[in-house]
Amino acid sequence: MKGKHQLGFTRFPSLVLLGLCLRLAFPGLGTHAEPSRPSQVVLLSIGRFGFQPAQLTMLRGALLRITNRGGSELNLVLAKENRQKVHDVRFRPKSNRWTRTLDLPPGTYVLSDPNRPDLVCRITVLNK
Length: 128
Fold this sequence. Notes:
alpha+beta
């Protein structure tokens, strides 16, 4: 019995040490945690007549998916109601989707294009 124990430990001390170092360096290594999923998916589209819907309410941490049905280049700004910029949303020609999980604090936000005053969407964010 003594020989087996010694043989197992003395032959592979570097592997044991390597495993210990990896575990300390990467604590999540080898775990199979579920990725966090958004609590809600919100769809918003942009067409010839503006945003559809022009006003929406979503939960904090929701996934916002914007579809540019016109296909034209757009440079949108998501800002708090006080005009403090939170995100830039850019659509290049032939790119028609923008998807992000937004963990915004509760409040009212405005999604707009500075070059098109008619293109405005008011977004209310609520706590989960």
